[in-house]
Amino acid sequence: MILNKLIQTAVVLALLAASNVTLAAGVSASDASFLKKAAQSGLFEVSGGNLALKKSKNSEVQKFAKMMVQDHSKSGQKLKTLAQKKNVELPTEPNFMQKGSLMLLNTYDTKSFDQSYSENIGVEAHEKTVELYEEAIKSAEDAEIKQYATEGLPIVKHHLEMARKLDEIVD
């Protein structure tokens, strides 16, 4: 009987905690997840771009990397402002897998580096980001989050197009 009461109490407390998180954040869990994933995507691009600026000798890679750092830093500031408004705490670094990719990328020599950077951080990362933004446009519940994704998608698609061109150059 006491164990049953404890379990019931724990369930009620867990539900209350979950509802408080939703109320405090002011956005749905899926909207908060989009904001966090978008932040990590941008942080990954900035980190990869900074790495490319240090390691690459290819002027096209350097040009692309510089644009990634600038554009994703600017987008990251807009995202941070939106997240603060929605009371969502954003990550401050790429996710575990992204960090692993960056560590591996850092081990490559110049030509292998350029190829891996353009393929993985250029093309593949932007393909994933396009999917992320398209999903947010379809399913975001918060109008401002949907607007952020709608405004950002053309930029991400442009980056993807440029990354594909870069990938052809460095192959």
Q: Nutshell version of this structure?
A:
The chain has 171 residues and is mainly alpha-helical. The chain has helices at residues 2-25, 29-55, 59-85, 96-106, 110-139, 143-170.
Give a description of the structure.
The structure is a single chain. The protein is mainly alpha-helical and 171 residues long. Helix content is 86%, strand content 0%. The protein is built from six helices and no strands. Helix 2 runs parallel beside helix 4.
- Kindly name the structural category: mainly alpha
Biggest sheet character: none
Based on CA atoms alone, the radius of gyration comes out at: 20 Å
* Helical stretch tally: 6
Helix coverage percent of residues? Answer: over 70%
Q: Whole-Å distance between the termini?
A: 69 Å
Unreliable stretches, pLDDT < 50, 5 or more residues?
A: 1-24
Strand content: under 5%
- The coarse overall form would be elongated
How much is the average pLDDT? 88
Strand tally: 0
Secondary-structure element series = HHHHHH
Secondary-structure map:
Layout: H1 2-25, H2 29-55, H3 59-85, H4 96-106, H5 110-139, H6 143-170
Key attributes of the depicted protein:
171 residues; mainly alpha; 86% helix; 0% strand; elongated; disordered N terminus
